[in-house]
Task: structure prediction
Amino acid sequence: MTVAKKISTSMEKSSFIRKMFEEGARLKAEHGAENVFDFSLGNPNMNPPAEFKKALMEAAEESGEGTHSYMPNIGYPFVRQAVAEFLSTEQGVEVTENEVIMTCGAAGALNVVFKTILDPGDEVISPTPYFVEYNFYVENHNGVMKTVPVNSDFSLDLNAMAAAITEKTKIVLINSPNNPTGQIYSKESLDALGRLLEEKSKEFNKTIYLVSDEPYRKIIYDGNIVPSIFSSYKETIIVTSYSKDISVPGERIGFLALHPSAEHKQILFGGFALSNRILGYVNAPALMQRVIAKIQGVQVDMTQYEKNRKLFCEGLTDAGYEFTIPPGAFYLFPKAPIEDDVAFVAELQKELILVVPGSGFGGPGHFRIAYCCDEQSIIKSLPGFKKVMAKYK
Amino acid sequence: MTVAKKISTSMEKSSFIRKMFEEGARLKAEHGAENVFDFSLGNPNMNPPAEFKKALMEAAEESGEGTHSYMPNIGYPFVRQAVAEFLSTEQGVEVTENEVIMTCGAAGALNVVFKTILDPGDEVISPTPYFVEYNFYVENHNGVMKTVPVNSDFSLDLNAMAAAITEKTKIVLINSPNNPTGQIYSKESLDALGRLLEEKSKEFNKTIYLVSDEPYRKIIYDGNIVPSIFSSYKETIIVTSYSKDISVPGERIGFLALHPSAEHKQILFGGFALSNRILGYVNAPALMQRVIAKIQGVQVDMTQYEKNRKLFCEGLTDAGYEFTIPPGAFYLFPKAPIEDDVAFVAELQKELILVVPGSGFGGPGHFRIAYCCDEQSIIKSLPGFKKVMAKYK
Result:
């Protein structure tokens, strides 16, 4: 075997998604990219806000003596301080730079956390549907991914969670607003989750950590709010990125923040710093650290996402699709009218519509629409959605 | 246990290096940073070349529609093409963008390669002394690090290498110009290494890969050249970064390149792409990819490094130190006059000189001086070096 068995298996397993993308590419080549309605990727189409470009130009102007050198692996102190200040307001809990580590995006932060906390065989529990890359991040560090169902509106099912937690559970991983459902977990459910984790930690005489993956925190609608997770449970680690806030997913800039009252704060923080270094990230990209320090709290204009969401919600309702109106993120996760979501997605492809089967998120019987796209492609795609649904009505 | 056992052990093991750095920090606090001669870190002090700032300003100006979005995980095709073109000339072997993946520095690239190739228990062999972070990178992916000695001038000892290779060997990892010795491996020794790996691959009926870590390739003196590694062995992967070439180690930009004639090229390349994604790097930072594409071949002015090297070589010779004049990189690796290099380094600290014990690189009885520093601190430190040596003469 030339490549590692795990990698070889992963390459085979992901083949159904790859085939789907290949089919999408084929359709674009055949019909012209502008005639294919691609809602398959969560690649934000908004431009970064004007403040970002201004900050970037400034940072480029300031380039010189030491601005691209190594800094402490955990990030520039002044950047971590700026992040901590903003986070303190957002979370309603006083956070300092000594609880913040700058990372190569949320994906980098998750790998750092898992590497630091998981011994081989330790379990990470995540509600489904979920961002399936989590499987890889957990397996990278010899952990075991375990999923639990949610309620039909994609809210947390605490009974299911309670039943799933065992003595092997080291981490509960949540993602709110959620990819792929767009659901936001309520303060009540998070408080209840916090109490549950406290009880279970006592029961098993260990600390069960809550990892809150929050890259969509600022992408919300209708005056919804994303509750402070630090207020619900003190053994919490927030991981996030600026990818969606300011539309810069290619720049790999994010951070992790440890609850200031976490019991083993010192050793955890030291472990995170070490893992960030030895996993080969070394540090989050220097220039982008400088940029985001200048624009804390800035985010993309939500007008277009709001319009897109409305267009899809009205159009799909009209076509007879069933779905929960998502309070956050830029995804819709409607029910497929047949059980086999992969087959249904193939039907949509015939109308030149590209979406991802729910099975790809541990949510079979559904499909995911990413509406971080241009308005016209939504409008033009709606007849296709309607036509395919009509086959099953 | 709150953190993983491996992490806990690593934190303890690295405590002697940490203590040394803490002692350095204490000395700086006590005597003023400007009065402490810090040669402990390979953090290039040169400013990036003027072309870098120009390219950065341009890239910042071009910021807009999609320039910070996700691109293919392996990097922008036009960037990989620019890199491949330069690499083709450098290596004397025609490389295309289909053999190049942009990475978060050389550390990111090494983790991608190890993740992709190593099954648990597979061995990676590296000549000593070596960059000890390699241990972590190999262990991250459940591999086993094995070291082999070199000749007294730090050139490759091929007999030792031949004796070390077993059926468990999956990768031989070399670093030329070397950190910490500054040695460059000759074309003859690399050709011989290539032949050895071909034989051993046949003997064990598998492919043994050569991974060549080359971040110091452009930091060379006295008209020395770093031979093309692709010319010596076809089952080779080059990993490198722009950190030292253009003094931007904080930006995490580098690449890996697979030999165009590697037997299992397709599956390896697919594996590297997958690993780059699932390790959480996702892609190399977008903006820096755009920047380096504009300045292929540009490098820092070597004048200061040359001056520093000369100052140290003359000063240390005068003081009675023994060392091989390093043809590359910005390190000197002199012999300590006593066996216990840690004790010797502690003596130098009394003269406010900070260097790293050779034990920290698997090269006991030596110490490493990083001369990527300002000239004055070298001149001012030389009496201290002389005074300490005099105690042992």
